[in-house]
Amino acid sequence: MRRLLYTFLLVPSCLFSQQFQKVDFKTLNATLALDAAHKKISGHVTYTFEVLSTIDTIRIDAKNMAFSNLKINNTVAEFKNSGKELQLYKGFKKGKNTLMFDYEATPKQTLYFIGEKDHLQIWTQGQGKYTSHWLPSFDDVNEKVVFGLSISYDKDFDVLSNGKLKNMSDNGTQKLWEYQMDKPMSSYLAMLAIGKFAKQTETAASGTPLEMYLSKEDAPKFEYTYKYSKAIFDFFEKEIGFKYPWGIYRQVPVRDFLYGGMENTTSTIFSQDYVVDEIGFNDRNYINVNAHELAHQWFGDVITATSGKHHWLQEGFATYYALLAEKELFGEDHFNWELYEIAERLQQAAKTDTIPLLNEKASSLTFYQKGAWALHVLRENIGAKNFNKAVKKYLEKYAFKNVNTANFLAEINAVSNYDTKKFQEVWLEKPGFEVTEALGILKKNKFIQQYLNVLSMADKPLVEKQSFFEETIQSDAYYPVREEVLFQLQSVDFSEKEAIVKQAMLSKDIKVRQAVAKTLNKFPESFRPDFETFLDDKSYVTREITLNVLWSQFPDDRTKYLDKSRNWVGMNDKNLRILWLTMALATKDFEPENKPAYYDELLSYASPDYESSIRQNAITNLLYINTNDTNVLRALVNPLTHHKWQFSKFARDKIRELVKKERYRLYFLELLPSLQDNEKAILEKLLNP
After folding, report:
1. Separation of alpha carbons 290 and 232, rounded Å
2. Which residues form the Aminopeptidase N-like N-terminal domain (predicted)?
3. Model confidence over 600-623: pLDDT tens digits?
4. SS3 category, 213
5. Which residues partner with 174 through β-bridges?
6. Which residues in 345-429 belong to E strands, given as ranges?
7. Residue 607 domain flag
8. Which CATH number belongs to the domain containing residue 434 in this structure?
9. Alpha helix locations (H) across 475-594?
10. What pLDDT score was predicted for residue 530?
11. Is the sign of the CA dihedral 314, 315, 316, 321 positive or negative?
């Protein structure tokens, strides 16, 4: 799973470890119905299971659910509902059994209802042990079941789930979507996604259908959102050597998703932030997340770590194979640059992070990125051919089962004489990051050598490096080399670096030109026409930087720049539109008759009608314009209960900052009686820490 910030902890209970040895659940078939108005789910569930040896109580995880009509082997059976588990203690026998029951729940998490009417989306996020909030299932990842989910919903909406769509049937205003897996998986990988989607399908080289979805209004963005999807899929099947086993693969973005993406078996959900047009593709694209979640279909879904201690076998592999996919698409220099940047982050984090990779409490950075580096070290030392052979055997031996680190390293031992014991001690059990070994590997790449050479000149005066920098900027060196040249010149007087800057601006590389825009906050009037060309670059980020600089540096021409950018929208967070509205409001004498409408538009973006990224951007700018508007202050309260923790944290931090001043504290105190109970409880804690 690709997360923006993620710490994973999974501790299987002793009870479930014992149950796993004594009871084998085979299949789960459920017919589900969703009530969006009341944010409820209900269903009829059938489990088949085999009792292997004597057991007093069989437990199914079920958070805050109500059960009825429970039968075991077609006979009404007694049960207990602890609020966390459905407990069966009568009616089952040694050997094969069938369990049936009805249930309903109003989940407080994991099943989310976003938006209203035609813009409604319903989706799940069960990573870890949370599927049991919406579906009676198993928090223990070692309990793998063959899922079949049939979902009834409004026929005007599309419904996605795991596996192949076996049948669709209309029933008046409802439609029943019947999905079926044919191989077992852990419960945390079960999913639902409901919305009004447009769909495109490609076919992989192996014949696997690749279904790609977008909200209908985003249909023009298919090409750039899903760019290289088929190429990545075909590369993985060839590189991994183990054919994609699930029969179909689909991907769908949803609004206000909690993280970057989630590798639900056959059906990845990802963030709306990665839905991009041709220009947005150059600023933030789905390629790495796309490859990461697809790699999980093997590493995490086909084989699943037995516990959090071995979580790197999922996240480290997915991170590394995503880098290998990017290497296939963009070349060795790109691949090594990604590894270099990861190494820098790990080296910095090692100053305070003392938890090693082979530990369930390791950080997300450790699981994902140190895990990827550990695999790169292995691959470099035993050779790509041997590495691929070991990975293929590892997948074949443990397909649809659970694995630990010893299982993987045993396959490395089988193809090489590499000292895996020392490797485990140094890379998996020791905290910190092995900078020397990592740099030794990176320096095999000529581009990295060139980059490090430029980096080493940071403290030298310009006179000693000017001719070298001029040559470097004119060269075809991979963009980070030329970026570093420009970063080192940031504080140098413009007249001294003008020749280098102008040469850099001739580059067709968007990132090199963007580096110029980033590093030039002040320049003479004579250079203004050159700088203005950045307003036409195919990068929303470059345009945002440029508009900010020009608006600030040339106040007499603000109207000119506002006219130029009047119809810009930008990325998913409306970065350019919100910036434009802010500047229009802050520019004296600019269209005074329209300012109320501009303010109302900006204020509307802070409302629950929009995604959290838009709302946060709008609130930030509204606070910049006028911190005394009670409408803006009220807009800060609603996010306190938002399901997306990043947005909720933003609101809490802003309110904490504001209430240091008495007038804001009094406003929020006066607001308390009008709030919903959950909002009131959080705000009271912020006011009375």
Report:
1. 8
2. 31-189
3. 999 999 999 999 999 999 999 999
4. strand
5. 154, 171
6. 401-403
7. no
8. 1.10.390.10
9. 479-488, 494-505, 510-519, 528-532, 540-553, 558-564, 575-586
10. 97
11. positive
Report the candidate in 5, 20, 1 with the shortest Cα–Cα distance to residue 140: 20
Task: Copy the structure tokens of residue 161.
Answer: 């789930």
C-alpha distances out from residue 557 to 561, 588, 598, Å: 7, 12, 20
Spatial neighbors of 62 by CB under 8 A, at least 6 apart, are 81, 84, 85, 86, 103, 105, 132, 136, 137
pTM of the shown model: 0.95
213 forms beta bridges with 199
Distance CA 217, CA 197 (A): 9
Tell me the C-alpha distance between 569 and 575, whole Å. Answer: 7
How far apart CA 521 and CA 545 sit, in angstroms, is 10
- Yes or no: say if 236 and 325 are a contact pair by the CB < 8 Å rule: yes
Last residue of a domain, one of 553, 580, 601: 553
Positive or negative, the CA dihedral 52, 57, 62, 63 is negative
- Quick: pLDDT tens for 187-212: 999 999 999 999 999 999 999 999 99
Segment (H or E) for 219: none
Domain boundary among 195, 213, 244: 195
Give the number of domains in the chain.
4
According to DSSP, residue 425 is labeled I
Residue 242 gets the label, from left (phi > 0), alpha (psi -120 to 50) or beta, of beta
Q: What does the CA dihedral 25, 29, 34, 39 come to, rounded to 10 degrees?
A: 0
With respect to residue 588, please indicate whether it lies within any of the assigned structural domains: no
Average pLDDT over the chain reads 96
Alpha-carbon span 572 to 417, nearest angstrom: 50
Structural domain that includes position 485: 456-553
Averaged pLDDT for residues 655-664: 95
Tokens of 341: 């940047």
At residue 2, does pLDDT exceed 70? no
Per-residue pLDDT at 537 exceeds 50: yes
pLDDT of 474 higher than 90: yes
Report which of residues 689 and 560 the model is more confident about. Answer: 560
* Residues constituting the chain: 689
Measured CA to CA, the distance from residue 400 to residue 123 in angstroms comes to 25
Tens digit of each residue's pLDDT (9 = 90 or more) over 503-530: 999 999 999 999 999 999 889 999 999 9
Instruction: Specify the residue for token string 């950045």.
Output: 534
Q: Which two tokens stand for residue 653?
A: 């931090």
